[in-house]
Protein: DUF1499 domain-containing protein
Organism: Neorhodopirellula lusitana
Amino acid sequence: MFGYVAAAIGIAMVGKTVWMIDDWGRDLTQNDAEWSDASDDQSQRPLRLEASTEDVEAAIHQWVDGESKWAVVEATDQAAGPPMAIQQLGGQQSSGQQVGGQQANSLRRLHLTRTTPLFRFVDDIWVDVLPLDDSDSRSDSDSGTQVLVNARSQSRVGKGDLGQNPRNLKALRDGMLASGLRPVR
């Protein structure tokens, strides 16, 4: 009897794993995901938000505080913006250089982690928040500050992530938008 129960639990776990995989070619061979303008999936693209850097950071902290598997490791100002955010604006990476009308050193980076419940694997998530220049990013109808938010998630162990890193980024996006941050239309 015990053997049947163990087999049923094993089959259920394998079935759930197979059910969660969205892209068999990607999910078994990659252990990272990044928002990109070239992505076909809208939930995997960088966000332009009508908010300040401080508002975005506060919204992320508030959302993470309500999620038991997530934690904020640190938040830092970057002296020279990392390629992840600068590439989205077509700028060059160098200290103090103009990027989208702003100094590259105005970028804010948050380091988050997400821990899986069963095996306690840790994924690192980096969120870059880059303020955009008023003249480049706003139309006549917009009146608030805008930021570009980009994110990257990477597993610490393993060759494939079974789709967890794209799910981390989707959960982050959903959490930010649920907190009341407005995307630029």
Observations:
- Residues 23-183 form one domain.
- Confidence is low (pLDDT under 50) at residues 85-105, 135-142.
- The first strand starts at residue 32 and ends at 34.
